[in-house]
């Protein structure tokens, strides 16, 4: 349970219903409530006005502009222009910057993904890329998602069969974390993945990755749980908190890093809208219940810029703000959960449902009226290295082109490459 200061309680009392999400989150003891964004969206002035309000969003994540294909499109040639735009925006607004990401099997330039590598040469490239990018942003990033989505969707908790694993083996993870720690010792270093929010093989594997990195004597500060949920299939706050505590028991912090809750079909009816509000509140309440959970980031806040509709046919309306930039009942439920925690209480599921129902009714009225609104050996793993709780498998064919399902997830968030996730 997070603890709040008298000043924080006074803030909630003074602002009441007008308090905004980040204000409420900080009052409740979190470090931030934030949003991802992407460069094309920054031409939308109405959107940017909300994104830039640090009372609403106290943290920003660049959705794509710090990924390898953007940052180092050719070997040794770095381009930070797009990433700098978002980093500068966060600095201007005094917002926390979560940097995303350094090593991922997707959105790699072809010179990396299709190169002819040895263990030694790819390790050198990996370390050079991380050093170049992290040193550029040194002192700006609260946290880095160092390795993203290293676990396969095979259902057995095995490592994803990417170029790094095939060439270096599982020790590419501690190598990456060691390189990031050397480049910016003050940044928090995270492992980030999806379908690790609830019990299952991927969660066991993610816990094993923490063990692997710590066992190698390398710094890992946190685990990012992406939190791409489906309305009506989101676990309870109790179950979510129980999984968070499995991570924090290993001495790392946790955060929800890419939260959204999508409707499987749209337009959603009132019951589904209320359920979405309850689901969002459950996730936020889970974070609030666990002392080591530092914050919540939504994977953009505006339905217009959500990755969901272009990925899941017929699905959508996953964000806190609708297509008119109006707050949804989900926003109201989240704010109520944060406000309750900030004043020492917890919003019950029935209270959240009641709030959502009222908000749904008000939302319908608005629509009707027409309103718009190098610590690790890089050549081979030592024989004494601890075994990770991740099954090592022989290289197999890639699953990157697997067809989407109702519980699938797109790696790039805004591109078409799809892979399959475990069901929630």
Automatic annotation (TrEMBL):
Molecular function per GO: endo-1,4-beta-xylanase activity
Broad class of the protein's primary localization: secreted
Keywords, comma-separated and alphabetical: Carbohydrate metabolism, Glycosidase, Hydrolase, Polysaccharide degradation, Secreted, Signal, Xylan degradation
Enzyme Commission number, as recorded: 3.2.1.8
This protein's pathway: Glycan degradation; xylan degradation
Annotated GO CC locations: extracellular region
Compartments reported by the entry: Secreted
Reactions mediated catalytically: Endohydrolysis of (1->4)-beta-D-xylosidic linkages in xylans
Domain annotation GH10: ranges: 24-337
GO annotation, biological process: xylan catabolic process
Signal peptide: 1-19
Family: Belongs to the glycosyl hydrolase 10 (cellulase F) family.
PANTHER family in the cross-refs: ENDO-1,4-BETA-XYLANASE (PTHR31490:SF35), GLYCOSYL HYDROLASE (PTHR31490)
Official protein name in the record: Beta-xylanase
């Amino acid at each position: 349970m997070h603890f709040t200061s008298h000043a924080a309680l006074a803030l909630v009392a003074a602002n009441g219903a007008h308090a905004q999400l980040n204000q409420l989150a900080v009052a409740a003891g979190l470090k931030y409530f934030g949003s991802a964004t992407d460069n094309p969206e920054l031409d939308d002035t109405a959107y940017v006005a909300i994104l830039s309000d640090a009372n609403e969003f106290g943290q920003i994540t660049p959705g794509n502009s710090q990924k390898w294909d953007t940052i180092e499109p050719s070997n040794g040639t770095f381009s930070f222009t797009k990433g700098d735009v978002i980093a500068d925006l966060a600095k201007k607004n005094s917002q926390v910057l979560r940097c995303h990401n350094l090593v991922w099997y997707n959105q790699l330039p072809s010179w990396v993904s299709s190169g002819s590598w040895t263990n030694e040469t790819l390790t050198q490239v990996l370390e050079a890329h991380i050093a170049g990018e992290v040193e550029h942003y040194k002192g700006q990033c609260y946290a880095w998602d160092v390795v993203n989505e290293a676990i396969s969707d095979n259902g057995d908790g095995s490592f994803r069969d990417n170029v790094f694993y095939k060439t270096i083996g599982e020790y590419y993870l501690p190598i990456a974390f060691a390189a990031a720690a050397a480049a910016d010792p003050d940044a928090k270093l995270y492992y980030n993945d999806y379908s690790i929010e609830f019990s299952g093989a991927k969660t066991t594997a993610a816990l094993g990755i923490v063990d692997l990195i710590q066992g190698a004597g390398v710094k890992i500060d946190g685990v990012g749980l992406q939190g791409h949920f489906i309305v009506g299939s989101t676990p309870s706050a109790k179950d979510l908190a129980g999984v968070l505590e499995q991570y924090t028991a290993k001495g790392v912090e946790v955060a929800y890093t890419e939260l959204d809750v999508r409707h499987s079909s749209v337009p959603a009816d009132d019951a589904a809208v209320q359920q979405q509000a309850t689901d969002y509140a459950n996730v936020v309440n889970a974070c609030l219940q666990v002392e080591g959970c530092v914050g919540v980031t939504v994977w953009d806040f505006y339905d217009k810029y959500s990755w969901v509709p272009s990925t899941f046919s017929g699905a959508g309306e996953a964000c806190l703000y609708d297509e008119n930039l109006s707050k949804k009942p989900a926003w109201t439920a989240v704010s109520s959960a944060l406000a309750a925690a900030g004043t020492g209480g917890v919003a019950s599921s029935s209270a959240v449902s009641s709030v959502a129902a009222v908000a749904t009714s008000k939302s319908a009225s608005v629509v009707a009226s027409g309103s718009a609104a190098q610590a690790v050996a890089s050549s081979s793993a030592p024989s004494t290295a601890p075994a990770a709780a991740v099954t090592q498998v022989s290289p197999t064919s890639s699953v990157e082109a697997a067809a989407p399902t109702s519980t699938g997830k797109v790696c790039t968030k805004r591109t078409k490459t799809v892979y399959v996730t475990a069901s929630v």
